[in-house]
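ARCHIVE CARD
CATEGORY: sequence design from structure
SOURCE FIELD: tokenized fold
FIELD CONTENT:
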């Protein structure tokens, strides 16, 4: 097996990545395929932290639009991320990978509480660590939680898994003129308002020199190829970007 480009990563999966063709909840086939992709990395000796969103179940902003108090809605969204994390933990364990959910919100009957040094220890012990409950605070997203955790656990790379091949100048699904950016800077992503992640999460990566890969999680084998050094998706990093 060829050498991996780094040893510890933080993988961000949106809740929608678990939905498959559906429009709510979790598709068991999709989650077990994602678990197999992660197992491949673990088998290759990688330490993998995972942050999963909750958008396949609840988002605070959407709930607020339908009349639920924003903070309550955000709490519901964070609890949704715990549900997704439990499902991923189960799927990983079924593939024979040791996995542990650590939540930013205390719920001791369900999973452990997130403490950075424990997370790092579990990673060093070869367990996949699923970081649930977002940041534990309303008005944030799980992209921000992913950037924060990536920096905290000392990941060498953060990977944002999406449904498209990387970063484009516009939504490639609706705009055929959209230009693909193989490489760009954090500041370019912010200045052009590119749909990479929200500004808070980009700034956290930028200020802490956390390189970010945006890639298509539905492309078979792409995750492994990326970590074996192939130029998969888009790379967001320091510098002047503009390498279109
Ligand atoms: N959320 C929050 N604080 C956090 C992370 C998430 O309040 O630190 C809530 C927020 O309501 C968000 C929801 O949880 O909409 C689900 O997360 P997100 O929308 O980031 O999920 P994704 O789009 O990745 O599926």
């Amino acid at each position: 097996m060829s050498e991996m480009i780094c040893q510890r990563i933080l993988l961000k999966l949106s809740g929608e990545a678990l939905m498959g063709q559906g429009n709510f909840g979790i598709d068991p086939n999709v989650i077990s395929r994602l678990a197999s992709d992660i197992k491949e990395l673990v088998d290759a000796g990688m330490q993998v932290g995972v942050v999963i969103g909750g958008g396949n179940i609840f988002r605070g902003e959407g709930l607020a639009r339908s009349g639920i108090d924003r903070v309550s809605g955000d709490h519901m969204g964070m609890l949704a991320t715990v549900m997704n994390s439990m499902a991923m933990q189960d799927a990983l364990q079924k593939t024979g990978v040791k996995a542990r959910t650590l939540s930013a919100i205390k719920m001791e009957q369900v999973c452990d509480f997130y403490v950075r040094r424990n997370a790092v220890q579990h990673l060093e012990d070869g367990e996949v660590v699923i970081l649930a409950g977002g940041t534990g605070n309303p008005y944030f997203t799980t992209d921000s939680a992913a950037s924060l955790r990536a920096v905290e656990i000392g990941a060498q790379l953060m990977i944002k898994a999406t449904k498209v091949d990387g970063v484009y100048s516009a939504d490639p699904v609706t705009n055929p003129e959209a230009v693909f950016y193989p490489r760009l800077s954090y500041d370019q992503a912010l200045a052009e308002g590119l749909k990479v992640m929200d500004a808070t999460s980009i700034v956290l990566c930028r200020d802490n020199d956390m390189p970010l890969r945006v890639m298509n999680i539905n492309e078979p084998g792409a995750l492994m190829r990326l970590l074996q050094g192939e130029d998969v998706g888009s790379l967001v990093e320091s510098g002047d970007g503009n390498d279109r």
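CARD ANNOTATION: Helices lie at 28-43, 60-65, 70-94, 116-124, 142-152, 186-191, 199-207, 222-227. Residues 14-16, 53-55, 59-61, 73-74, 77-78, 80-81, 134-135, 137-138, 140-143, 145 surround uridine-5'-diphosphate (CB under 6 Å).
SHELF: design records, drawer C
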